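The material for today's practical consists of a large collection of protein records. An example says more than a description, so a record of this kind follows:
***
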Amino acid sequence: MTGSLRKLQCITMDVTGTLIAYKGKLGDYYCMAAKNVGLPCPDYERMHKGFKVAYNNMAKRFPCFGWNAKMDSKTWWRMCVQDSFIQAGYTYDDATFDKVFDRIYAAFGSTAPYILFPDAIPFVRWARSEGIVVGILSNSDSRYQDVILPALGLHQGSEWDFGIFSGTVGLEKPDPSMYELALRSAGNIPVANSLHIGDNFEKDYLPALSIGMKALLLDRFNTVEAKVWKEKGSTVLQNLLAIQKWIIQHENLHSSELVTNGSRHLQKEALPRNNCLRQ
């Protein structure tokens, strides 16, 4: 580990919006799947809205992609996709829907809907080269861990050390327990020596702070929400390169404080016991 980084031992990271992003909107892929099996193309806006309603309903009924109900994630997604079409005003017979769903499920189990941010791999490799443990925290199912991240070039063991995925552990952000589990998985690293990076104030920033971790917010697209986050006192940066510079700056500051405090400590020990130095 270089001399610039002496305190930070673990970085946990959100995935979507932080390391990767969707190409287009989720509903677009639903519409394309219906069209590809010979159905009239659904209305895009209705599909976008239908998916949001269906997803929120499923997340409430069967949290963590059905983990608590002992439901496999593919069944969870099948119910969610079917309800998305129903919410948008489209109903298909079982045979037709199976064809539509198979295309959608296959698409989201591949790299097709995703794009990797160009600073993602350089950042995590830099962090690990400094001896920092890198963990992934994501409200996603196991396909992120097993298929999608590796296919995008983010491999466990070379780009990240461990992953906490809600569909495999039965926890979801913003539950602080997910962050506590991450630190145990990292080797019981102290919260004061840990940093979480994400793009959501409620799901990433607040729960990390609540257990004593440091936290940074990422705003890649100059959103209106980010202005509110800053007004609330959050540190908001635009990309992972800026976050890397922030980390180095603050770790250098910490190193300087260690040297200064160490010098003062030696001076204090040399003085009479009844003489107090303010540190």
User: Anything to note?
Assistant: The domain at 10-21+116-255 is CATH 3.40.50.1000 (Rossmann fold). The radius of gyration is 23 Å.
